[in-house]
Design goal:
This protein is an all-beta fold. It is built from 3 helices and 33 strands. It has a 22-stranded antiparallel β-barrel. Strands 8-32-31 form a 3-stranded antiparallel β-sheet. The chain has a two-stranded antiparallel sheet with strand order 1-2.
Length: 620
Amino acid sequence: MPRGALASLTLMPGSNPMFGLNTLGGALTLQTKSGDTHPGTEIELQAGSFKRFSGEISHGRVLGENGHLFLSASVFDEDGWRDYSPGQVRQLFVKGGAHVGDLSWSLSLTLADNDLIGNGPLPESMLAQRRAQVYTRPDQTLTKLTMLTLNASYDLSSTHQLSATAYVRRARSATLNGDLNDDYDPPTVPEAGVENRTKTSQRGAGLALQSTQKLGGQQLTVGASYDRARSSFQQTEAEGDLDATRAVVPTDAPEVDALISGTTRTASVFVHDLISLAPDLQLTLAGRYNDTRVSTVDDGRIQLGLPTTLDGEGRYRKFNPAAGLTWQASPSLTLFGSLSQGNRAPSPIELGCSDPANACVLPNALQSDPPLKQVVSRTLEIGARGKLAPALNWNAAVFHTVNSDDLLFISNGTAAGYFTNFGRTQRQGVEIGLSQQYTAFGWSASYSYLRATYRSSACIVAEHNSTAETSPACTGDDEIEIRPGDSIPGLPRHSFKLAADWLASTGLSVGAQLRAYSGQFVRGNENNQHRPDGVDFNGAGRIGGFAVLDLTGSWKFGKNLEVFGKVANVFDRRYATAGLLGENAFDASGALQAPADWRAEQFVGPGAPRAAWVGVRLSF
């Protein structure tokens, strides 16, 4: 969706069941613009580092006495800062509607056509030689989306409203991944690369009906929804050679590895009741019952005779309750607390990739697999917010979330892995925020402490972890033991954000944004016990923390013209945002080594270097 089509974006934290499936940690609500609420025209052009160019146009207007129309279109082109990493994004949003008496309706169309390169992590030895290198290529994803959404509401009375939402959605994606051939062993297997391609087609539709009524000191909402989606998936692979840029050049004809189709159907009923126990005390009660059916059909076995058995069907039912209490203790202090539960059903792709003995090539190559359970998340949050001074706002909260049967993707350290249910995981912590706004100066600061841990024991495959096959409790090949209390990789414990804006003079404003994160464990080091020896095992098993400063500025010339700019990563800090333990087949310069010289190493996702962009915005 174009950025210019968004009127607001709100994060609703916790396992709120009112938003249906998948709200395990929260939900994002996006409010789009309409012609009657956002009339006028805005044009924005931007260009700068990495040969980036972006353009966006938005226009809203009132039609006649009751109608309205809004449209927004955007384009984005960039070469990227890493080798061979261009990207293109094309988006369109059109929304029309009317208010006729007690009836309001809108119909919106969303279109997207994107071509993105997602170069993956890089071995630290290659990173030290040149940060812009890529491991193997290409890693291309093509996506096309068409979605039509109808929203309508009817006021039966001043206290009772009926509303409905209906949508149809079609998404198509194709991926092209040039990967290392794990079986490379000259002269027996001379092909060093393998080209993996996938095609995914999804068609979905849904309908939701809702009644909201004010009854004295309460507001009661009841509703029902039904969603249905059909998907088809095909993956092929073709062995080939690696050229000087580590791109795969196929030498064999592609072979189909998997061909499946799947259906997901979810029926839900929900209720939400906001009760005023007192003028300053509000109670919220909510609940939602979800009934989801997921089925897969092995078209590859039926049509092509593939040696797979992917047919299957699962049913997942769950009632998720929620309760919250808000007390305005004084005009400058509000206390709140909530307890909620959400659930998520496995997708057909996850059901088809859950056998550790048959790891899936990313994004997925499917084999016959064991069934998976649905994920259930329970969240407790207690907090407060208020004012310390007329212009100084603050907020603080503690949270505790436990996921049961969490679905994790376990990597085998190359380009493959599998999905599995993992007992229990836990995320708990503290969030604190401060903000202050004066006439010409404003600032905000936020801090988060997150303790994310496994709460169950398990054995998982992690071949390049130094502790693999050393635990008496885990006897499988290349397995490590995870114990309760081990930190979940990829999640920094401390994060801090600081922002400030200053209106230096009439029309001229400058700003600064600082974000800082502590270190984190990498994937493959789920037991937090990896120790490098510099010979058989390399890499610390974790990446360090970092802080990045951005600067922004704008200059308005009257009401209609604004020039703006941004400098990202002002001090050109070198940092990484993610990592994993894997096997590196290349030397520091990127030359392919003999299989006997491949070594276990840490891969990291490098952060972007310093960059700058300038733009102009016209408003009418």
